[in-house]
């Protein structure tokens, strides 16, 4: 297995840093190849601007079209091209980050904004009466798996079905379905640690054991059963889920899981 770990936490001695290091050692000890993109250590530039696209930047800037032209011409900045090459190299991607303000840290969102360019992560495939591009189960990154390893400060009950923060699966849906599944990546159920701000040092041994178990079973873990866009569940071009396919009473984000 070739695994890319995209890590986003400013403190190397944090719990997130320990989980990243444990992932590297566990996977390498099991014979897998591992690469790490440590975004803070890399001083990753998080904002999209005209400099990303060089001579292919238009005025006014058109992020989608300009990024696509620069991608096609091979003139994206070196840091972006390096991350795209890592994604193409990997068959598994682990995202290690804390849940900040109900989403990923800004530096990680900036990594997505700059690396997932037009003609690479989106804007691919044919549009016709039966297809709406290669998206949601198809695309450039199809054949790969991803796992979110997320730490949250609040207790688990706050993220339950009736919890005030909303269900954790709903909070992660824009990342898992909208960012990862969109370009074709199969998404494994996330590894979420709750109440980490109150975690005692003695608790880490159990956390580490659970994380190692997840890492060593990545290849046999079934992905979340998101519905594929072009395989009959959705009307095209409206992309509405066809009536009667959902279990009784299911609504919201859950409609898009088989």
From TrEMBL:
One of its GO terms (cellular component) is cytosol. GO terms for molecular function: NAD(P)H dehydrogenase (quinone) activity. Keywords: Oxidoreductase. SUPFAM superfamilies: Flavoproteins. It comes from the Bacteria. Residues 1-215 form the Flavodoxin-like fold domain. Pfam families: Flavodoxin_2. Belongs to the NAD(P)H dehydrogenase (quinone) family. This is NAD(P)H dehydrogenase. It comes from Lentzea aerocolonigenes.
